[in-house]
């Protein structure tokens, strides 16, 4: 009597376990990717904070100060967005919400990378403004923005549209 149910139950358990393993792998991969970005953005944030306490900064004009503030705010936004998935994971730990965490964390990661791209572009613009100034600084800032935009967003989005969309339940959630 139980042998038929046991076989069915074990198939369901294996499918459930497989899905749980996939979710765990996806979450692990996402968190590892975020660790890479977090380290860089935290170093950048510290660097940007230290600039305001230099003698040279005291003599800068409003353009440099506004650019610096916007850059610091974007770096802070990147830190918030790139570390939020770890907080979500901790708070929702063992609540059966791993799939939700992955979906939200993915959106946070993409938004965090956008903020990081703007912060990196602003940092390059600031440094170029101090070193060479004028149109060359603006050109370097635009070039940096284009580089980040193309490498981090345009090319991956283009590639995303090239492949087939897999609709089955067994596909990885990436």
Question: Please, could you describe this protein's structure?
Answer:
With 174 residues, this protein is mostly helical. The chain has one domain (11-161). 84% of the residues lie in helices and 0% in strands. The chain contains 5 helices and no strands. α1 packs antiparallel against α3, α1 packs parallel to α4 and α3 packs antiparallel against α4 (98-131). The longest helix is centred in the first third of the chain and has 50 residues, at 2-51. The protein is elongated and about 60 Å long. Residues 167-174 have low confidence and may be disordered.
Chart the SSEs and their pairings.
Blueprint: H1 2-51, H2 55-58, H3 62-91, H4 98-131, H5 134-162
Helix pairs in contact: 1-3, 1-4, 3-4, 4-5
Name the features:
174 residues, mainly alpha, 5 helices
Short summary of the structure?
This protein has five helices and no strands. With 174 residues, the chain is mainly α.
Indicate the low-confidence ranges by residue numbers.
167-174
Instruction: Round the mean pLDDT to the nearest integer and report it.
Output: 83
Number of helical segments? Answer: 5
Structural class call reads: mainly alpha
Computed over alpha carbons, the radius of gyration is 22 Å
Q: Could you describe the largest sheet, including whether it forms a barrel? A: none
């Amino acid at each position: 009597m139980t042998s038929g149910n046991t076989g069915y139950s074990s198939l369901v358990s294996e499918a459930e376990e497989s899905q749980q393993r996939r979710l765990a792998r996806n979450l692990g991969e996402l968190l590892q990717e975020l660790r890479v970005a977090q380290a860089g953005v935290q170093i950048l944030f510290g660097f940007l904070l230290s600039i305001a306490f230099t003698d040279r900064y005291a003599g800068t004009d409003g353009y440099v100060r506004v650019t610096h503030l916007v850059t610091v705010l974007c770096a802070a936004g990147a830190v918030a967005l790139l570390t939020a998935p770890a907080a979500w994971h901790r708070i929702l730990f063992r609540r059966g919400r791993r799939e939700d965490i992955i979906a939200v964390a993915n959106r946070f990661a993409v938004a965090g990378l956008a903020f990081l791209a703007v912060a990196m572009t602003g940092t390059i613009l600031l440094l170029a403004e101090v070193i060479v100034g004028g149109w060359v600084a603006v050109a370097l800032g635009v070039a940096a923005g284009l580089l980040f935009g193309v490498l981090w967003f345009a090319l991956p989005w283009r590639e995303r549209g090239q492949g087939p969309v897999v609709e089955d339940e067994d596909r990885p959630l990436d």
